[in-house]
Structures are given as C-alpha cells and as structure tokens.
Amino acid sequence: MHSENREEVLFRDIVDLESTTYVTHGLYGYPAKFIPHVVRYAIENYTQEGDWIFDPFSGHGTVGIEATLTGRNAILWDLNPITKVLALASTYKGNIDPADFELDWDYKKPFHPNWERIDYWYPEEFYKVLSKAWGYWHYEIFQNASESEKVIAYIIAIPLLKVTRYFSFSDEKISKLYKSKYAIQKVEQLMKNNWFQKMEEMYWRNVYTVLKKLREYREYGPKDVELEIFTSEKRGNKLVVCDSLNQSLHREVKLLITSPPYLQSQEYIRSFKLELAWLGYSGQDIRTLTRHEIPYNKIKPVKINSDTFYALREKVVNLRHPKLLHLYDTYFRSLVQFFNTNHSKIEIIAIFVGPAKIRHLRIPIDEILKEHLESLGFSHEKTLVDTIVARRMFSTKFNPATGLEDERTPTEHLLIMRR
Length: 419
Prior knowledge:
With 419 residues, this protein is of the alpha/beta class. The chain has 14 helices and twelve strands.
C-alpha cells in the first residue's frame, strides 16, 4: 500500500529554526497548528523568492508568516474568521506601542454578543466588565478604524481575547471550548480575590508578550510581499462564507503547502465559538460556519481515483456504522472536489497529514490523495514521514464527530507531488 520514495525525518532537526513558536507563530493558540519547520522546508526546496504559494486551510496563518520572512507572495484561505485576525496581526510590520492598547474597562456602551450560550460561560460579575471592555474595542477602536487600520484593532483584540477566554468557565488548557471541573474551580478561586486587578494585570502581561513577538518578527526582516487573505467574515450584518472546498484560484501558484483538517478532528469553528461571539459573530453565524466544516458539509458525490480508497471503504462498510462511513466518504469527497477544481493552477503540491484511525483501521490519507493526484497529472516526488513530538490539539477519549473512541495520530506525512 505504501508508495516508494518514503523517508523518515524530524523536521525540527533538518530545518534550522529557533522554535515552533518563534516570531509570531505562537501569537494565539490554534489546534493542530502547522509547525513552521514543515512550511520552511517546502518553501526553501520548491520555490524561489517572488513565487506565489498557497494554503487553502491556513488556520493560524503559519504559511503567511513564513512567506513574508522568505520573500514569497502568499494566498491564504480559511473557513474560520479568526484566521484573518491572526494572519494580519502576525505579519504586521508597522509601529505599535503600549498606549494603543489602552481600554476603558468602565465604558458606558457595553457590547453584548448575540449568542444565546454566552451566559453559560461567564459569572455575571466577569461578564459585565468584559462586555464594557469589548464595547470599547468595537465602538471606539474597530468601528473607527479605516480598512488599513483594522490590523491594529486585530492586534489589540489578541490580549483581550486571551483574558476573555481565561476569565470564563472554559478550560483554557484545552483547545476545544469545554467547561471542565478545573475551569469551574478556577473561576471560583478568582472570585475570592481581587479578580478585576488580576484581569487588568493579565491583559497587560499579554499586551507586552504581543509587542515582544511583533518586535521579534520585525527583527527577522520580513520582506515586502503580497499577502492575500480570504476568510469568512461579517460585511455589515451579512456573513460571507469562505468555503475552501468550493473556491477557485484566480492565479497560478508555484506551491500549495497545507495541512488539511484531519479525518478524525473537525473542531476548528467549535474551538473558537467564544472568540467569534465576542468579535461580533452571532449564534446563527457560528452554526452556519459549523455546517461547512468537514464532515458536516454537504458535498456531492465525486469519483475518487484511488484503489486504496475503495479497498479501505469496503472495510469501513463492514464496520456497519453509518456515521463512520459518512465521515470517510465526506472527508475524501471534500478534498478531492477541492483538488479537482484547483489542480490546474498549481505546479507543486505539499500536503502535511497523518494516517488517521477509524476504529482499528489506519487510513493512509496521503496515499489516497497521492493516487488521486496522479490521475490529475501529478507525479509523486517523495513522502517525508515525521514523528509527532508535541501537539496542541486537545486529547479526548471519544471523537466529537463520531462519538467513538479516539486515538491520536503518531506520525505526520509530507506528501510532495509535482506536475
């Protein structure tokens, strides 16, 4: 089943970068985030300065950061609106100082998220103060910013988002939005002391962390490149959805480098419900975005040109579990539809994904995609197999998408295909 030209590597060893969170890569937590070493490897080995690179599932914006540091132009797509906030903030080269982060914690026009679940996540005392701070952000900072100045508002939102997440019943140590016993005890402990002072102090600690990381980013000398970011976002009162699976590239690119959503982990919108609510997305907006996530999206049947896919599908059918079969079919149909639509505009494809597990079956996602891409005219250059050292994706006994026992993937594979 495994193809030739496979090599075991540790990207942390073969790519010389300071850490996985150097410069602005760790500006905000994001589940299953690309390590920059993988992106840097693909950029340095398959592109030249001035080339266009593309990530259709861009998450935190790792590809955008690495593109600016290496002089490549980049196109970033993502369903999640927070990607635009993080990608723009992480690649900001201008000046910003502590005075820009001043908030009015007693602002007279509080912002109340239009999400019916918001009260579940906060004690009343915390909510009242946070709604005033967010009122100041929305009505004094964001609404008064020109389009070019909105990046400053996004940067200011980052420390406020961190405080807003911490001073909630959400367990901030878990990427998924989750009300744990620890989080309940945390809130109870905070309320026993001078919690508002701690809130302010935490906000300013995070401000200086953001400023430090932005300063470090500037010291690495980001180049003047084009960065096109297309995500879901609110335009007035209307939600405009960016569904990567149904978008078409408007230009040719040298390299696609991406880590698509994992077969057994579709938690990206769910992980950011709280942040999205405070940024101005309604409960209906969040539900709409969730419906576009794999495997909850509605995708038309499409032919998958992979013998491996159909051989394993028979085994999934034999599990006699319709939800698992739907997950399997929808996942691969979604990715295949994307590549069918956009492959002609891409010269080199680099896909970083692990062999997920459904029950006792390991699903070699890279092999299935390799076979289908070969049918589209690509040739297999090589596959690099990297052992996962650390992960941000939350651990859980059961997969939320299937309700079945979950198991983390031990390796990730960088599949390289060339036209």
